[in-house]
Amino acid sequence: MPTIQAFIMEGHDAEAKARLIAGLTQAVVETVDAPPESVCVLIDEVARANFGVAGKPADADTPGRAVLQAFLIAGRSDAQKERLIARLSAAVAAIGVDPAVVRVFIQDLPNTDFGLGGRTALALGRGIGRAALVHHG
Q1: Are 41 and 25 in contact (CB under 8 A)?
Q2: Which of 42, 70, 94, 118 stands 20 to 30 A from 1 (CA)?
Q3: Residue 2 among the catalytic residues
């Protein structure tokens, strides 16, 4: 059920996007033990004028950038998330983006807030619930 949303600067052909999808999928499979058929990748191409870098809109001379959001059912370890961030960042090199400038955000969703096929992850026996996400201390 992991879903990766990739915001990339416009201008990549279908072959480059296919490489990106494959690389992001493989990163998820290898770091959080998800089967490939459960991984969904969404690519949003952003016009350079709508991508801000250093307080200014990007232009034709601005090096490529990417922002990734990883939506996961809660329950992955910090070590898995650390590996996922590293591998997702590296995967964006497939479209010529320097991994050092890639931003990755992980959203842990309780199993009651994530669904597939009209059923919650809880009903499908996956992930952890909201109570386990509450930190006491």
Answers
A1: yes
A2: 94
A3: yes
| CA 19 centroid distance within chain | 15
pLDDT given for residue 116 in this prediction: 84
Name the residue type at position 130.
R
Q: Which residues of the chain have pLDDT under 50?
A: 136
Find the catalytic residue in 2, 57, 63, 99: 2
Residue 34 near residue 2, CB atoms below 8 Å: yes
Which two three-digit tokens encode residue 51? 């991508």
State how far the Cα of 120 lies from the Cα of 64, in Å rounded to an integer: 37
- CATH number of the structural domain 3-133: 3.30.429.10
What ranges do the domains of the chain cover?
A: 3-133
What phi and psi, each to the nearest 5 degrees, are found at residue 109?
A: -110, 130
